[in-house]
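<derive_structure_tokens>
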Amino acid sequence: MFTLTLTPFGQASHAVRDNPERAEFTGYNPQRVRWLAFSLSSFFAGLAGSLHAISYEQAGPATVGAQTSALILFMTYIGGIGSFLGPIVGATLLGTLNANLSSYTNAWGFYLGLVFILTVMFAPNGLAGLITMHKPLLTAGSRVLWRLVPSYVAGLGSTILTCIGTIGIVEMVYHLNSDLTKQTALTLFRLPIDAHSWIPWAACACAVAVGVLLSLRAYPWVRATWQATMDEARRRAAG
């Protein structure tokens, strides 16, 4: 599949995806290119389905159901549709999380949808796009790249604090509305928590508020540091 992207047909597919009108002006037939791309994608999808049937020795309705299709869509977009390795990264990450976290929380579907929405809003190129955007900095040298570390640590710390508070609130809501348990004790981050008490709710709300306030200060710093570092990397590349 990767070799196919390097062929003239692969380059034409990129051109038709980005700007079909300009590709048509250069002599390509966008309809034919899309038809061939759709046919090849169907071939690879059928091949993957065959390998799935051989591996699991079954292929039921759930294999082609709406939930599986949505999960594949999430994998693709979260990993990144603009990079060949993006869907692979998304499939590996979400496959691992789905296999592990689904047994610990009933809100796994909510978290997956939330991550998908945040990715579409703030990282449209996915995780692979976040990685590849650092390529100019890697070529400029590690000294330039290290200048981003303090702002990245601040942004990551504020994000983690916000996530901790959000996860706490979501888990307590799911716990109180669950019909599977009648107990008030909830184990969150390996700590026993009474979801009927106001203390954990206040603590999680404070964590969210502080995390959001810190993010409002940290992310402009990340943006400014990123722009300054990119400008220096361009100057080094030009010089």
Notes: The chain has a mean pLDDT of 85. The CA atoms of residues 4 and 125 lie 21 Å apart.
